[in-house]
């Protein structure tokens, strides 16, 4: 199963991705987690990403796509994966389809986690990550609206909508139901 998780920041994609990756037996690949890991290890990639993340802006696509491409080359991703946080722009989506085409594969589905802005702001303020200040939250929501939301149309043929406003358990069972249909 090759899946992408789409949705605004704070939609609970990371939590759902971890549960879903477990049930499907595929790796959970989160670009945000990969960047945070590189920042804590003080790598060059981490240094390149940090200022953008702190500001709530997108890390340049060249840097991000290269990191994803390398991750998808690893053995555990050969038979499937769950991409969380990538692609975030139409340009990135086009790069992803080229990467997969070269491997002779394609995405099965794109899960679109639907949640209101009030709920995402509440969730982000509650989790208290270092880039979860009010200013960066506002920037990230704006980036989502401008750059990421167009992917819902881009992926119209393979999109699966999930209501993401309930409890963690409700959302993960609706995800599995939606994928079954
Ligand atoms: P996330 O954990 O998905 O909320 O991502 C946290 C931050 O990492 C974002 O606000 C961006 O600065 C950066 N980031 C994660 N994924 C991407 C991506 N696909 N393209 C550019 N920047 C990204």
TrEMBL record:
Keywords, comma-separated and alphabetical: ATP-binding, Cytoplasm, Kinase, Nucleotide biosynthesis, Nucleotide-binding, Transferase
The reaction(s) this protein catalyses: AMP + ATP = 2 ADP
Q: Which GO terms fall under molecular function for this chain's record?
A: AMP kinase activity; ATP binding
Which pathway does it serve?
A: Purine metabolism; AMP biosynthesis via salvage pathway; AMP from ADP: step 1/1
Per UniProt, subcellular location reads as:
Cytoplasm
Q: Name one Pfam family in it.
A: ADK
Q: Name one GO cellular component term.
A: cytoplasm
Q: Predominant location of this chain? A: cytoplasm
Kindly indicate whether the keyword Kinase belongs to this entry.
yes
Q: Tell me the protein family, please.
A: Belongs to the adenylate kinase family.
- Please give the function described in this protein's UniProt entry: Catalyzes the reversible transfer of the terminal phosphate group between ATP and AMP. Plays an important role in cellular energy homeostasis and in adenine nucleotide metabolism.
Which NCBIfam families did the record assign?
PRK00279.1-3, PRK14527.1, PRK14531.1
Protein known as: Adenylate kinase
Please name the taxonomic classification of the source: Bacteria, Bacillati, Actinomycetota, Actinomycetes, Mycobacteriales
* Recorded name of the encoding gene: adk
């Amino acid at each position: 199963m090759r899946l992408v998780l789409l949705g605004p920041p704070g939609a609970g994609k990371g939590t759902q991705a971890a549960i879903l990756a477990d049930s499907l037996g595929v790796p959970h690949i989160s670009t945000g987690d990969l960047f945070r890991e590189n920042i804590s290890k003080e790598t060059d990639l981490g240094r390149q990403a940090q200022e953008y993340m702190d500001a709530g802006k997108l890390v340049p696509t060249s840097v991000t796509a290269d990191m994803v491409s390398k991750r998808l080359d690893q053995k555990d991703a050969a038979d499937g994966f769950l991409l969380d946080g990538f692609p975030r722009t139409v340009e990135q989506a086009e790069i992803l389809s080229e990467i997969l085409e070269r491997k002779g594969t394609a995405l099965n589905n794109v899960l679109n986690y639907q949640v209101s802005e009030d709920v995402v702001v509440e969730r982000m303020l509650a989790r208290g990550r270092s880039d979860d200040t009010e200013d960066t939250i506002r920037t990230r929501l704006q980036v989502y609206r401008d750059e990421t939301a167009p992917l819902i149309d881009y992926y119209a043929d393979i999109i699966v909508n999930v209501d993401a406003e309930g409890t963690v358990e409700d959302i993960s069972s609706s995800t599995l139901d939606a994928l079954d249909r």
